[in-house]
Amino acid sequence: MFALMAAAGLWWTAPTLAQMPVPGPLPDVAAALPAVPPDPGDELALEELDLRMTVPVTIAGKGAWPFVIDTGAERTVVSTELAASLGLEPGPFVRVTTMASTLSTPTARIPLLKVSRLSPDLIEAPVYARRFIGAAGMLGLDALQGQRVVIDFDRSNMTLTPARRRMQRAAAPDEIVIVAKSRFGQLIVTDAHWRGKRIAVVIDTGSPVTIANSALLRLAKSSVPIGPVSMIAASGETLVADVHQLDRLEIGGVTFSGVGVAVADVVPFGRFGLADKPALLLGMETLRMFRSVEIDFTNRTIRLALPRNVMTRGTSFAAR
């Protein structure tokens, strides 16, 4: 079987970027959450989890359980604990590409997974321990394809609706609209630059921290690392990287200052054909600089609502 990027999500610890403790054992989410399905409407309340966002998911009418929204993962992932408690039927082993490696991974067959109005067909989800994925599960591209996902940070909710092919609507004065390329269902932004050089950007809501490859760092004549960061992949493997601060990072005509990134040649860069090309996996810490993020997988567009003090293209603002 060919490699599948199933879990881009990471736990991380980085005092230089955010005062966050090393994650310990998680509570029993199955026992802690009420057995009430989410509201059938389009809007879902978001909950924060180590900077990432979760939405309530039901399985075969049971739940709801918090699943991380992971636009950087090709497949939905379920925790070992939840699969066992629901008695999910085991599926085949698959080759899975995580942030750290490619390895053979067991799967569980998830029937009738439902989030908002979305109810994809039977999903064979790779299974990992909850202490490594940091949640009951992760909602990947196999569940999100054909959808329009809007993450509204101002209102702390997510809207998930079927996306239909349509003519591109013009950008509002307070937003960036980017047409992306698709690779393995993942949207790759090419309208991005650093220090005047074109780079590729992948929107990765499953990672709390933005990750740059070493090819991007080589664009700088000199760079001083801020400090180390430790990240734990869904498979339980640990990655250690140096944090650097990027100035003059431009996405869709808007320039950012002071964006912190962890520099690591993680496996997904190779999966996307970006191993030797300057590239970023844009994680939640950076995405939170925007008021909202809209990802339309059908029309291959990404809309980023700018902070209220930045309303036009060609301007710049500092990372918070």
UniProtKB/TrEMBL annotation:
Residues 1-18 form the signal peptide. GO terms for biological process: proteolysis. CDD domains: retropepsin_like_bacteria (cd05483). SUPFAM superfamilies: Acid proteases (SSF50630). InterPro entries: Peptidase_aspartic_dom_sf (IPR021109), Retropepsin-like_bacterial (IPR034122). Keywords: Hydrolase, Protease, Signal. It comes from Sphingomonas mollis. This is Aspartyl protease family protein. One of its GO terms (molecular function) is peptidase activity.
